[in-house]
Each structure stands twice: as C-alpha cells, then as structure tokens.
Write a structure and sequence with these properties.
By secondary structure, the protein is an alpha/beta fold. It is built from 19 helices and 20 strands. Helix content is 32%, strand content 16%. Strand 8 (231-233) and strand 9 form a beta hairpin. The two termini are 38 Å apart. Bound molecules: zinc ion.
C-alpha cells in the first residue's frame, strides 16, 4: 500500500501523462446488476465551459468517463453558485432550498459572536467555534445523503468521504460517515476525536515530505503552449506559471495538482484498507478534488496554470481508475462539479470581452446601510451582508424594517452593476422551478437556494459581466457565485465497466444524480427534488426496477 500511495503522490507531483486513450466503448448492454461501490467525484469549479474547452485533449480518466453517459449541460440551477450549496445537491437529490445550505456562509444574528457569520459546515454551538476557526459539523445539512439512504436500507453499507475541502467532504458525506477526511491548513484531518487510520498516517507523512521539498516547474503539455501568456493583475503577473514552489510553501501546494493527487491516493488507500466494494452491501465513497478551484481562484481559467491542472487531474484520475480495475472492484462512477466559474476580467478584456469589469465597492451592505441609516435617521448598523444576502439588523425596530428593505432594494436596483435585488417576500412567493434549468428566471434561480430561516431579507445579483471581487489579491483573482450559466453549468458524467454510453446535450440537474445512482443500486427513494436519469442508451431503462 505504501508503495502505491507514494507512487500516486509522485504521479501527481511529476507530470507523467498517461498516453493510453482508456478502454474503448463496449457494445455490451448496460449492466443490470447493482454495482458494489459508488465512486462520486466532485471537481471543484469544473464548469461546463472549461470541460468543453478541454474534452478533446483528455487521454486519462476524463477520456474514460467520456465513453459513459455524458451530460455536458448539468445544472447547479440555484442562484448561489458556491461550494457548500453545490456540494449539498450532489448526493442528496435536493436543491439548497431544502438542504438548507444556502451559501458558504450566512448571517445568524442570534449567534453570540461579533460578526454574526455562520459557516455552512460548522457547529456554532461548539465551545470556541468561530466563523473563521470553526468546529466542523454536518448539523446545518437538513436532509440525508445517498450514503445515509444506503445505510438505512442496509446497515452494512459504508459511506466514506475524502476531499480537499471540509465542506465538500461533509456535504457529500452527510451525517453518518464511516470515514471523513479533508485538507485543512497543512494536513488531512477529520472531526475532533476521530482516529487516523493507517493510510492517513502514511499520507500525511508523505504529503509533509512533499511540501518540505522545493517543486520544480511542471512541464507544459503541447496543447497548453498557446495559453501560456503572462497577464498583469493588480500587483501580480500570472498566466504562464507551472507550479514551481519553494520548500515549505503550503499555500502553493494547495493550489496545485499535487493536492488532488493526495486526495485520490487517500481515497484509493481507504478503498483498499476498508475493502470497500467487497462486502455484502454496496458502499459509497465521495471524493472532492479541490485543486481546480484553488487554481482557478489564484490564476484564472485561461492560462498555463489551469491547462496543466486539468491535464494532471486527467492523468491522476486515469491512474486512480486503473488502480480500482486492478483490484477487480465493480464500481459505478459519477463525476460532476459544485459550480462553474469564469475567467478574470483582466484576461477576458484581452480576449474580446472589453465589457468585463470588477464589482464597485459601492455595491455593499455596509455602504448602503450607512447611507440609509443617515437618510432615515436610524442609528447603528442598519444592514448586514454575507455575499449576495443582505439582512436588516435585528436592532432596527420592527416597524421600520419594511421601509428599510424597500429603500435598500431601490438603492441596489439603481446601481449600474446590479442585475436584480430581490426581496425575501418576492423570492418566497416564487414557486419552486420545475422546467428546464437553462430557462429559469432569476427569481426561480433565487428560489432554488432560498431558505426562510437562513437567507437574507434581500438578495443582490450582479450583472453578467461583473466579477464579484473588487480588488484582486494573491490567490484570489477570479471567482464564481453568480446566477449566470458560466457558474451554474457543470458536466455530469456516469461511467461503469460494460456500459454502452451516450451523450445527452439537453439540460439536466445535479439533483438528478442521487436518484439515478439509487436506481442503479435498486434502492427505492422518494420525495427528492431530482429525477432518475436513464443511463441505458437503448430501449432498456436503468430507472425501472
Ligand atoms: Zn467550489
């Protein structure tokens, strides 16, 4: 095992590209027996646009998945296209309006902390937990995950989650995980009190040794050469980087392909040590590979960095799948993303998008709240903001709240960069959308991630060409979180050995994944927001059992 783990880590750090094109499509009928292991992979920030740009370049794991059931227009349909809401949809089959995960952070004015911010994957009641140094927990997730449904059907089923971010592991794992590990600061860790299994001890030692050494620049694949063009962003020049890093640079390790290599190596190690997929009941492992998101935020989407990242991930996924094959495990893969993204305005403007801009500092709850307070004669902070959600301060007398909400809406709507400012009443009055997600109205997108207990009194949406980062910084130049399709559209790929495969270009949703996988397992589920997708390209129907 140790040899494999080290090999996998080395593979992620050194650019050994798999040149095989993966197994060819088989004419065999879609397997009718349930798989023994569900492998659910989320590639953080892998937009449908990015996937379309690179899909013909892939030769490793992605090339294999492209021979299965391919849904290039999967939707995280909700407005709040952030990591926590997105991951909460993938294995629950529910929209954020029902998972309760409306954003990465929200405001809860009843919490005894100065900033009133609550993190999606924390337990704010835990002693010492703060919005920045939080105690991780799944308590905010209001619904069960597929792993919990499998356990309810057969307690012998095991649920394992490993990810580059705590919120990815927790939102896909749910409330009853057998193992759950995520990257935090400089090590893979878990909930307090959990014992590191041997594979984690070895992985953490191997990762520490990797970080302690300097990393030479990774080679540039031929198809990345045209993208390697320096761009000035604030005080930095990016766009032609190759992941060279100094000894001990943990942040550079995190925003590099090596993080994904470590996550996949740990996933393989847990599968082997726990004998997942070889017990009497089916098991599930959720894997969150986060480097694509860290790379996207740090370097944007259009440079050498993202090109190398995706080539390395393709290779690492290929090795991971080959390893599962070598163990003769009957596994069903789904791969998707928690949200998409778009490139930073500085490079966009050079590439035929002169209208791309960064958000103006005037679009803020603090600034608007101060102006309203002065105009209406209300003392103290009037508005609190958390990303697009705006809350009227609890100190404001109840009789004044309607006027303040109306005035805040009027002021935000008058701003040239704001597409919409929807009040909670307007969103709550909107029926949950039922049609194709590509044609939902903005109010329907907002409704899909609205929870009356947690959402703001007002939701602000920026116009399509406005990036939500006012001032770019090191590690943070480009982002997502908008209600527009570059942030909502993600690929959804299903693959299993022997599956004939097909491509369906029309829109489906990430909430369709859980009912689809449940059907392949022969597991009856009901009451989910999503629907089962038939993975048989012919007359057969994998949704019928
Ligand atoms: Zn994310």
């Amino acid at each position: 095992m140790r040899a494999f783990l080290l090999a996998a880590l080395a593979l992620a750090a050194a650019p050994a590209f798999a040149q095989n094109a993966g197994p060819s499509a088989s004419p065999a009928p879609t397997p009718s027996t349930p798989p023994k292991l569900i492998v659910a992979i989320s590639v953080d920030q892998l937009s449908a646009d990015l996937f379309a740009e690179y899909r013909n370049r892939f030769t490793g794991g992605f090339a294999r998945l492209l021979q299965g059931a391919v849904f290039p227009s999967g939707y995280q349909g909700h407005a709040s296209t952030e990591t926590c809401p997105g991951h909460s949809t993938i294995l629950t089959g529910m929209r954020p309006a029902r998972t309760g995960i409306i954003a990465n952070n929200w405001i809860d004015q009843k919490v005894a902390r100065a900033d009133k911010q609550v993190y999606c994957a924390e337990d704010e009641r835990a002693p010492g937990s703060t919005s920045k140094a939080y105690t991780t927990s799944a308590i905010h997730l209001k619904v069960p995950t597929l792993g919990e449904m499998m356990k309810a059907a057969n307690p012998a089923s095991r649920m394992v989650a490993v990810a580059g971010k705590d919120r990815a592991a927790i939102m896909m794992g749910g409330h009853k995980v057998d193992e759950l590990w995520y990257w935090k600061d400089k090590t893979f860790t878990s909930y307090a009190g959990r014992t590191e299994p041997p594979v984690l001890v070895r992985a953490n030692a191997a990762v520490a040794a990797l970080i302690a050494k300097p990393q030479e620049a990774l080679p540039l694949p031929g198809f990345c050469k045209g993208m390697s063009q320096p761009v000035r962003v604030g005080e930095q020049t990016i766009g032609a980087g190759r992941f060279e890093r100094a000894a001990g640079d943990v942040r550079a390790f995190r925003a590099s392909p090596a993080l994904d290599g470590a996550v996949l190596a740990i996933a393989a190690g847990l599968i082997q040590d726990m004998k997942l997929g070889r017990g009497a009941a089916p098991d599930i492992i959720a894997i969150g590979v986060a480097a694509t998101d860290f790379v996207g935020h740090a370097y944007g989407l259009g440079g050498s960095e993202m090109c190398i990242q995706l080539a390395e991930l393709d290779s690492a996924l290929g090795s991971f799948f080959d390893t599962l094959d070598s163990w003769n495990i009957d596994y069903q893969i789904v791969l998707t993303a928690d949200h998409g993204a778009r490139d930073m305005p500085e490079r966009q403007r050079q590439r035929a998008m002169p209208m791309e801009a960064r958000v103006s500092p005037e679009v803020s709850a603090k600034a608007v709240g101060a102006a309203i307070g002065a105009a209406l004669g209300v003392a103290g902070p009037v508005l609190l903001g958390s990303e697009g959600d705006i809350y009227v301060a609890d100190d404001v007398p109840a009789a004044r709240r309607p006027a303040i909400i109306a005035e805040a809406a009027r002021r935000f709507r008058a701003m040239p960069q704001v597409a919409a400012a929807l009040t909670a009443a307007e969103i709550a009055a909107t029926p949950m959308p039922t049609g194709p997600p590509d044609i939902w109205t903005l109010a329907e997108r907002a409704r899909a991630s609205y929870d009356p207990e947690r959402s703001g009194d007002l939701l602000i949406m920026l116009k399509p060409h406005v990036t939500g980062i006012a001032t770019p910084g090191v590690g943070y130049v480009a982002t997502h979180g908008s209600p527009w399709d570059h942030d909502r559209r993600v690929p959804i790929l299903f693959w299993r050995k022997g599956m004939a495969g097909f491509e369906q270009p029309r829109s489906v949703e990430t909430i369709d994944i859980a009912p689809t996988l449940a059907a392949t397992l022969g597991l009856k589920v009901s009451g989910l927001d999503g629907r089962c997708l038939d993975l048989d390209p012919g007359a057969g129907d994998t949704c019928r059992f």
